[in-house]
Each structure stands twice: as C-alpha cells, then as structure tokens.
Amino acid sequence: MNIVVASGKGGTGKSMLASSLSLLFSQNWRIVACDCDVDAPNLGLWLGVTTYDSVEQISTSEKARINPEKCIGCGKCYENCFFGAIERIDSKFKVNPLLCEGCGVCKLLCPVEAIELTPVMNGEIRVKETRWGFPLVSGRLKPGETGSGKIVQELRRRAEKINHEIMILDAAAGIGCPVIASVMGCDYAVLVTEPTPSALSDLQRILEIVNHFNIPYGIILNKWDINPKASDEIAKWSGDRFLGRISYDREVVNSIVNLTPVILSESKVKDEIKEIFNRICESASL
Fold first, then answer.
1. How far is it, in rounded angstroms, from Cα 277 to Cα 286?
2. What phi, psi does 15 have (nearest 5°)?
3. pLDDT at res. 196
4. Alpha-carbon distance 117 to 77, whole Å?
5. CA distance 145 to 97
6. Looking at the structure, do residues 146 and 215 belong to the same domain, yes or no?
C-alpha cells in the first residue's frame, strides 16, 4: 500500500507527520519512506538522517544546444522560445542554459537541424538505511534545474524495488508537478491542514487532485489550538473524513532541532499522533 502525506500548503506539518507514521508503521510492517519534496527535502531531518549510504546523479531533463557551424541565423528559435532562453548576440544565437526548459520547440522548428537536446544531470537520488529499521529514499533537484516531477517519478521507481509492504510518501507543498507525481497511483492520502484561511483554501485545491485520481483520504488538523473556532469549522466541514487534531507544542520544534523523531520525543503530540495512526489504519483497512 502507498500512503501519501500532502496538504497543498507548506508548513502544515507534513514531514513531521510522515516521519511519525513511518516509525509507527514500521513496528508491524516492512516499510520504505520517500521524501518526494525534491526542491526542499527535509524528511530525513525529522528522522535524524544527515548523511546517506548512496547518492546517485540522475538525468530527467534536457537542454538545447545550437551548433554554430550549422546555424544559418534564421531566428525561428529566437522568435518561438516561450521561455526566452534563446539569446541573440549580433547575428548569432545562443541558448541560455539557466532559462532553457528543454521543451524542444526550437529543435522542431529549426530548418537545418542545427539544434540538439542534450541530457543534463539535474538531480540525485539518495538512499539511507535509517537506524529505525527502514530505508529512506530521498530525491533532490539541483539548483537552477527543472524536472522535479520527473525526479519524483524516478524516486518512486527506485523505492518500488525495495522490499516493502507499505510506502510512505512525503509530498511537496502546492499542487504542481512533484505533488501530482507523488499522489498518482497511491492507495490512501493523509491530508494535513491548519486552522487558517490559506491552509483551508490549499486543502481544497489538493482535494481536487486527490479526487481526480479517486484516492480515499482522511484529513488531519495540525496546531488546532491556535484557532479553536476555525478548527471546529474545519472539523465539521471534513465530516467523516476527519482523522483527528494535533496540538501546537514548542517541543515539536525542539525535536527537529535535535534531529529526534517527534514520536520519540517528550512532546504531548505523540499520543495524539498515535491515536490518529490507529484511525488511519482503520480508514485505510490495514
């Protein structure tokens, strides 16, 4: 079973919850944890991971390159590049690699085949056998590169090769390509929100994706006590999808500062998370 933790908004506590669920599920199942936020991976920090057993450089993207010997200076690439990656210097054209998205329009339109798409090493896949008895697979997009969604897909392919019964996926914030790549194909979604208008709005946006893929889901309200009135309204709105509340506790912050999983800390939220874990198992028929 693949269980994705998502929210649509950053800072709601996805990685905190994903790390806690990984530890709890690992007590009875073989699991693999996946950090699918390749732009800002931090699931490892919640699990006390600072180094990895293996780091593999990968390529999921291409960039255009103009062969000056073949280029006739027609300017079709320059005129049709949506990203403004083609620069004109005097009568010659050159690709700015920082702007090129590798879409291939320039190659398609070039009348003399002077443009080639070449692979770039735009990311890496990192694997760590954690001290908690399960592996962590983490991806990282290199600064200035594109293709985060494709890196998540590659990350999941690597994780599938590891012997497991349950995969816990920690999705990125938002509803973009890496989030879609994290959610699609999952069996259950744990959606985390907080009692603020922006968090509820983003929860409703991520729900559109979850419902598009027909994925069963449950909703968790983090830091509920910072706004009890709004929390009650969200809980009522969630209906039978509501899995529980997690309190605000400064010890949660101290937990990541000390690279200690929340579920093993002295924070009062660990008991709340354990209750939620039991409801997830029931809701997901585990």
1. 11
2. -70, -35
3. 93
4. 13
5. 9
6. yes
What's the pLDDT score for residue 143?
87
Output the pTM of the full model.
Answer: 0.89
Region 239-259 average pLDDT: 93
Locate 9 and state its tokens.
Answer: 């908004």
Helix, strand or coil, per DSSP, at residue 120: strand
Same domain, residue pair 195 and 224: yes
- CATH number assigned to the domain comprising residue 79: 3.30.70.20
pLDDT value for 281: 94
Using DSSP's 3-state secondary structure scheme, residue 39 falls into: coil
The burial of 15, by beta-carbon neighbours within 10 Å (0-12 exposed, 13-18 middle, 19 or more buried), is given as buried
What is residue 146's predicted lDDT score, i.e. its pLDDT?
Answer: 83
pLDDT at site 33: 98
Residues 80 and 213 in one domain: no
Dihedral over alpha carbons 234, 242, 169, 44 (to 10 degrees): 70
Res 150 pLDDT > 90: yes
Same domain, 77 and 44: no
Instruction: Collect all residues with Cβ–Cβ distance below 8 Å to 127 and sequence separation of at least 6.
Output: 52, 53, 54, 135, 136, 137, 138, 158
